[in-house]
């Protein structure tokens, strides 16, 4: 035990009228929503990197947090794990996520880093034995170290490609050992800054082969979880190869991996790509590659990824509506890829940030479920496309332009547009949110 969260009791559900800051008002893990416990719908996870490894810096300033476990020793790594599991217990978190660099100190060589990872994974495994918290997904940090400044899989240096592959292998092994339900590939620097020094075709082939190796290794070790790519636009590379869900799908189709790999969609990344969160979720669901989500938000007056905890029920309800329409999570979940503001220094801030975010998501889920149960939105959607359900109209998709031309002439077609009724549907939506 540590004393970092000393005096903070486990957070309990007390209902919407509670005046206790350290209580859930809307997140009741055992509440049944659409036939499933709320906890099983939302599948919350804590991000190890933002909660326990991030020092509080931003592009214009350095460290503001002073945590007792900050440092590059295995003893401090074990302390960090102890604090993490204490927080998981306080929040009742069912899952966590990690990068290798979050949980172990960097070694002087690859072999030393790998030994450090193996040792801390063993320690985390012992902590999991006495806890209810499981691993949602693991991943490799292939972007922070200077060796990855020109990418990992797409790096022009073949030795970096090899180093990245070896790192992913160790992280997949660690994820498998801890019973992880997914493995994520986050291409933070898989892109380019200028075409003056970039061979697009070569880099795409490297990235495609690298991902194929990951899938092959998954089957070799018997890992049953999903392989996920996290779309990442603009930041830090100006042109990212995994820009958004549609771009990732095109890449997967190109290399024959669309049945093997799904996506982990982050709210902040969706915004940076010029989309809404719900658009990216709906697109992934329509393409059959929806996997999991990273829940955060951006400051919409800022041009970079601020990774703030969610605070808008209407915004999150649109996301969960699309998730429910898609059948909910399978192996995925709601990972709080969010960090405190650099002025939020106290241990209580870390707890309350998650409490508030979990309540926001719970309210959003219930609103989305109520609207889906109402059926009005889906009925309006079906009515808008009802003409296509008639046999003669459906058959048009299997004919040719000559047939369409003949039909228009023979039937004297002169169609008039019909209202999309957007405002009416927005009013319906707002009754529930």
Automatic annotation (TrEMBL):
PROSITE patterns: XYLOSE_ISOMERASE (PS51415). Keywords: Carbohydrate metabolism, Cytoplasm, Isomerase, Magnesium, Metal-binding, Xylose metabolism. It is found in: Cytoplasm. Binds 2 magnesium ions per subunit. Its EC number is 5.3.1.5. Coiled coil: none annotated. One of its GO terms (molecular function) is magnesium ion binding. GO terms for biological process: D-xylose metabolic process. Its cofactor is Mg(2+). Mg(2+) 2 binds at residues 266, 269, 305, 307. One of its GO terms (cellular component) is cytoplasm. It catalyses: alpha-D-xylose = alpha-D-xylulofuranose. Mg(2+) 1 binds at residues 230, 266, 294, 337. The active site is at residues 99, 102. HAMAP family: Xylose_isom_A. Belongs to the xylose isomerase family. Homotetramer. This is Xylose isomerase. It comes from Phaeovulum veldkampii DSM 11550. The lineage of its organism: Bacteria, Pseudomonadati, Pseudomonadota, Alphaproteobacteria, Rhodobacterales. The gene is xylA.
